[in-house]
C-alpha cells in the first residue's frame, strides 16, 4: 500500500499547493495528486490554479514523491493531444514520477469553452477515444486518428520520457471502471465501492487502485466537521450531482442543507487516529492500495504532523 496526499487546488492558491507538496514529501507521503479544475466547487473556495504548471513547480522542488493529476478530463476543455504533451513533459521534469489521472469530467470545468455537455454515455466514448489518442502519440512518430468524436491530424510528440506515465482512470460506476480495466493502467475512485474494483479486475485491470480518503484533522471533532462542511460539502452530493452542475453558485444552492453532522458520517473528523484509520480501512478492505488522504480540516501543518507521528504508522502497520 502507498499513502498519498490530495492537493485541493480549489481551496488553496498555486504557491500554497506547491508548498503543501513539499511538506507532504517531508512528512513521508509516497505521492501527491492535484485536482485539475477550471472552476472551484463552492463559494468558500477562491482558487483554481492550472494543474500542470503546479506539477512542474512541484517536480522542481521535490526529489522522490510521486505526482499525479486527480483527475484530468482529456476532451472538451483540452484536446487529448495537449494532455499527451503535458503529461509527457511532466514525466520528464519529474524524472518519471508522474501518473496521469484521467476521467470523464464535470460540467463545472468543461462548459467554459462553450462546446456543450454530452450525456455520460457519450463522455465515456470520448474518454475511450482520448486514451487511444494519448497512447498513439506516446508510441512515437506521426499519427492521425479519425474517431466518432475526436480527431487527430498528422501529429507527433517530440519529447517523450524514457518510461511513459501510467494512466489511472477515474470511475464513479462500473462502466467507467471497465474502461479503466480495458484501457488504463490503474483505477481511481472516491468511494469505497468494491463493485468498482471488481469491474476493473474483471475487465483486465491488473494495476493499482487509487482512492481518495475523506479526512479532516483538527484539535476537536466539532472544528474538523465544520471545516469539512465549509470546504468539502459538495462531496456528499454524489457524482450524479457533481458531474452536472455548472458553477460554484449551483453547488452552494445544492448543499444548503448539508450539516457538519453529515460530514461526520463520511469523514474522519478530529484528532482521534482510530476514527481516521476506520475511514481509511473502508477503502483497503474493499481492495484499494493507493490511498490519497484528503485533509478538509483548517490546519494543514497540524495534519502533516498528525500524519507523520500518528496516522502513517497505524496505516502502514495495518497494510
UniProtKB/TrEMBL annotation:
Annotated coiled-coil segments of the chain: none
User: Domain named Luciferase-like: which ranges?
Assistant: 16-288
Under which EC number(s) is this enzyme classified? 1.-.-.-
EC supergroup of this enzyme:
oxidoreductase
**InterPro entries in the cross-refs:** F420-G6PD/mer, F420_G6P_DH-rel, Luciferase-like_dom, Luciferase-like_sf
Q: Does the keyword Oxidoreductase apply?
A: yes
Membrane-spanning parts: none
Q: Tell me a Gene Ontology molecular-function term this record carries.
A: oxidoreductase activity, acting on paired donors, with incorporation or reduction of molecular oxygen
Keywords linked to the UniProt accession? Oxidoreductase
> Cross-referenced Pfam families, in alphabetical order?
Bac_luciferase
Query: Which Gene3D superfamilies does the record associate with it?
Result: Luciferase-like domain
Q: Which domain of life is it from?
A: Bacteria
Read off the SUPFAM superfamilies from this record: Bacterial luciferase-like
Read off the NCBIfam families from this record: F420_G6P_family
Indicate what this protein is called per its UniProt record. G6PDH family F420-dependent oxidoreductase
What is the source species?
A: Kribbella sandramycini
Amino acid at each position: 500500500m502507498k499513502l498519498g496526499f490530495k492537493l485541493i487546488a480549489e481551496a488553496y492558491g498555486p504557491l500554497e499547493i506547491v508548498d503543501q507538496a513539499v511538506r507532504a514529501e517531508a512528512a513521508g507521503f509516497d505521492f501527491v495528486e492535484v485536482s485539475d479544475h477550471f472552476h472551484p466547487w463552492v463559494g468558500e473556495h477562491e482558487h483554481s490554479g492550472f494543474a500542470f504548471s503546479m506539477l512542474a513547480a512541484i517536480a522542481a522542488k521535490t526529489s522522490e514523491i510521486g505526482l499525479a493529476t486527480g483527475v484530468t478530463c482529456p476532451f472538451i476543455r483540452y484536446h487529448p493531444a495537449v494532455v499527451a504533451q503535458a503529461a509527457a513533459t511532466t514525466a520528464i521534469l519529474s524524472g518519471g514520477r508522474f501518473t496521469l489521472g484521467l476521467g470523464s469530467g464535470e460540467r463545472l470545468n468543461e462548459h467554459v469553452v462553450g462546446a456543450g455537455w454530452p450525456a455520460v454515455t457519450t463522455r465515456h466514448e470520448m474518454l475511450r477515444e482520448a486514451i487511444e489518442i494519448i497512447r498513439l502519440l506516446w508510441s512515437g512518430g506521426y499519427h492521425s486518428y479519425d474517431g466518432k468524436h475526436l480527431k487527430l491530424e498528422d501529429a507527433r510528440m517530440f519529447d517523450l520520457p524514457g518510461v511513459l506515465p501510467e494512466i489511472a482512470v477515474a470511475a464513479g460506476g462500473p462502466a467507467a471502471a471497465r474502461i479503466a480495466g480495458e484501457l488504463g493502467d490503474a483505477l481511481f475512485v472516491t468511494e469505497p465501492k468494491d463493485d468498482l474494483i471488481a469491474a476493473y479486475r474483471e475487465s483486465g485491470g491488473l494495476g493499482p487502485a487509487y482512492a481518495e480518503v475523506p479526512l479532516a484533522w483538527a484539535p476537536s471533532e466539532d472544528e474538523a466537521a465544520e471545516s469539512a462542511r465549509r470546504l468539502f460539502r459538495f462531496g456528499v452530493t454524489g457524482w450524479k450531482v457533481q458531474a452536472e452542475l455548472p458553477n460554484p453558485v449551483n453547488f452552494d444552492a445544492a448543499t444548503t442543507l448539508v450539516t457538519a453532522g453529515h460530514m461526520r458520517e463520511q469523514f474522519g473528523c478530529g484528532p482521534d487516529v482510530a476514527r481516521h484509520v476506520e475511514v481509511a480501512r473502508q477503502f483497503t478492505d474493499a481492495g484499494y492500495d493507493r490511498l490519497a488522504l484528503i485533509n478538509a480540516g483548517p490546519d494543514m501543518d497540524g495534519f502533516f504532523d498528525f500524519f507523520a507521528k500518528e496516522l502513517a504508522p497505524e496505516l502502514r502497520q495495518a497494510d
